[in-house]
Amino acid sequence: xxxxxxxxxxxxxxxxxxxxxxxxxxxxxxxxxxxxxxxxxxxxxxxxxxxxxxxxxxxxxxxxxxxxxxxxxxxxxxxxxxxxxxxxxxxxxxxxxxxxxxxxxxxxxxxxxxxxxxxxxxxxxxxxxxxxxxxxxxxxxxxxxxxxxxxxxxxxxxxxxxxxxxxxxxxxxxxxxxxxxxxxxxxxxxxxxxxxxxxxxxxxxxxxxxxxxxxxxxxxxxxxxxxxxxxxxxxxxxxxxxxxxxxxxxxxxxxxxxxxxxxxx
Length: 265
Fold this sequence. Notes:
Helix content: 25-40%
Organism: Candidatus Enterococcus moelleringii
Distance between the termini: 23 Å
Protein name: 4-hydroxy-tetrahydrodipicolinate reductase
GO molecular function, one term: 4-hydroxy-tetrahydrodipicolinate reductase
Number of strands: 12
Subunit structure: Homotetramer.
CATH superfamily of the largest domain: NAD(P)-binding Rossmann-like Domain
Order of helices and strands: EHEHEEHEHEHEHHEEEEHEH
Oligomer: single chain
Strand content: 15-25%
Structural class: alpha/beta
Radius of gyration: 19 Å
InterPro entries: DapB_C, DapB_N, DapB_N_CS, DHDPR_bac, NAD(P)-bd_dom_sf
């Protein structure tokens, strides 16, 4: 399948390009960067640090290459991803988006795109995090109503949004298992006199150094607690999962898909 990587110079884009270049089922046909960046016009392999030229360019105008691809992988910025989404719908191209920080109204655009294209949105493309979500479903259904639930997430100092998109998705999994809405349950941090309220999920975000990603969910009971956690040591697990998601999306009919659909187990 022919693949375009959006944001190939970013921490995720570089790894996605490197992994896609090694896969026998993927052929890279271009990269897309923001207007004005000094690597526009460079070979994609050189820009992404693959170690060899790939014979395709990095451009700043997606329209010039979009018809060459079967699927696009986008881990860029909120603004750029929304523009990519519009073009994907116009040209009927499959899209995998892992950018976070969208408003509920903006997320609705991604869901609606599924009526026209194979649209796979995932705040986290790790297969192990997908397994973690399944475990949370089981735990929430079994003990969610009799425990206090807290979510703690840690990312590098440069992450813009808080809580992370992954922690929001984990909270949604728990809320759904309890037949509730996360918007009615979420409490973001605490300060001063702040007793725990029933039927809430506490969120706590840490930002430090270059730590890739850590998510821990605690079900606190009396005299005991259950913790379900995922810790990444680098971003390669997410990039590999993103390529797996793209391979899946490229073969699908129009629809709104998730990592749970792509990374079956």
